[in-house]
Write a structure and sequence with these properties.
Elements: H1 18-30, E1 61-62, E2 65-66, E3 75-80, E4 86-92, H2 95-106, E5 112-117, H3 123-141, H4 183-193, E6 196-200, H5 210-222, E7 227-230, H6 240-248, E8 255-258, E9 261-264, H7 266-274, H8 278-283
Helix pairs in contact: 1-3, 4-6, 5-7
Length: 286
């Protein structure tokens, strides 16, 4: 497909690089291959896709912005330019979000995309598949995609901008010895008076662990108002890091509460987002 951002298909006489076949074979062995929006024949019996073809799709870009065909599931993806030359191989917990963020800086290089969905995949499984794609390309071409090379041409996913909002401080900052109300009572009052509260490590603009960053990112994407509390702030929230675990009877942080109810940590929030359930759950709180 020429003249716009979309995906073209190599069929029949079109040249398909050998390493694409390796993707298919490795994908079949590891998790099974699924392509989105394939057009034309060659599907084979039972919807199978012949080897040595790469994906077709609806256009990646419409007049008003990116199309929404790209799945929001975890997986591995490869981006090609209009000459069908590979630009970048990436992995993502949410492929559609990564494609949108790439488009902010690399849109002119984004003509086609190969997508391998891996629902429920672990971080190790995603990295293993991503590495196999990189290795297959390198074996065929003797190099790695230009966007994966370190340096000026490297594709970098900038962290999305977040709304600046002050974190909630549970005390005036006089220390644990001067607490007039037990910490569990302060937690209980907070989660029951605020619609959505996220207890995280760090702040919403500077999370201090990957799981907290993931939760803040997903909450920001919902555009629902929420509060954050920094469990590492011993000056204003002394003892909170352990107290919140006791309060929720949940051993890890971050923790998200909606209308006084604990709904989950990073894994559950991510799963809700992938299933399209997070926005609805948070909007019910408003």
């Amino acid at each position: 497909m020429r003249g716009g951002v979309g995906v073209s298909v190599c069929r029949g006489g079109g040249r398909v690089p050998n390493w694409v076949g390796a993707w298919v074979r490795r994908g079949e062995r590891l998790v099974g291959l699924r392509r989105h929006g394939a057009t034309g024949g060659g599907g084979g019996e039972g919807g199978g896709i012949p080897k040595l073809e790469y994906a077709s799709s609806k256009p990646l870009k419409k007049a008003e912005g990116l199309d929404n065909w790209v799945p929001s599931t975890p997986g591995v993806y490869a981006v090609f330019d209009e000459r069908e030359e590979l630009q970048y191989i990436g992995l993502s917990r949410r492929i559609s979000n990564s494609i949108e963020r790439h488009a902010e800086t690399e849109l002119e290089k984004m003509h086609s995309v190969q997508v391998l969905e891996m629902p429920g995949a672990s971080k190790d499984s995603l990295q293993q598949m991503w590495k196999s794609w990189i290795e297959s390309y390198a074996e065929e071409t003797g190099n790695i995609p230009v966007g994966n090379m370190k340096g000026e041409g490297q594709w970098v996913l900038n962290r999305p901008k977040v709304r600046a909002k002050e974190e909630i401080k549970l005390t005036p900052g006089k220390g644990a010895d001067d607490l007039l109300v037990p910490m569990d009572k302060l937690i209980d009052s907070l989660v029951k008076t605020k619609r959505v509260v996220a207890f995280i490590k760090g702040t919403r603009t500077q999370p201090e662990c990957g799981f907290s960053y993931q939760v803040v990112t997903l909450l920001n994407q919902t555009h629902v108002d929420y509060e954050t509390v920094n469990v590492l702030d011993e000056f204003y929230n002394p003892g909170l890091r352990e107290a919140i675990k006791v309060y929720s009877d949940w051993p890890t942080i971050p923790q998200v509460y909606v209308n006084g109810e604990f709904i989950g940590g990073a894994d559950i929030i991510t799963e809700m987002s992938e299933k399209g359930e997070l926005v609805g759950a948070l909007q019910e709180a408003e």
